[in-house]
Amino acid sequence: WVTEFAAFLKKSGKLNVPAWTDIVKTATFKELPPQSPDWYYVRTAALLRRVYLRQGVGTGALRKVYGGRKNMGSAPSHHRRASASVIRKALMGLEELKVIAKHPDG
Q1: Which of 42, 67, 70, 77 could cross-link 6 (Cys pair, CB 3.0–4.6 Å)?
Q2: In the predicted model, is pLDDT for residue 70 greater than 70?
């Protein structure tokens, strides 16, 4: 479902993709930016699915979900959160499309 909706978003051309999507990393624990040119559409579709499954979820909780393990070398690994800016901009883009709306409590 996520890949099909991502293709729909790309085909419709209504989602505003930020200019920095080709150079940004999706989290601090990543070493490189995403290799797929359509990664922003896929992330936006995945966020929409995640919000649909759990209404009222915020940026902080989504950062935890999309976070991962940071390799600390010889020290033990630790969990790091994902980029809030990527998640925030994707959610704002979905709001502009009127696909989702802000929760009444915030």
Answers
A1: 42
A2: yes
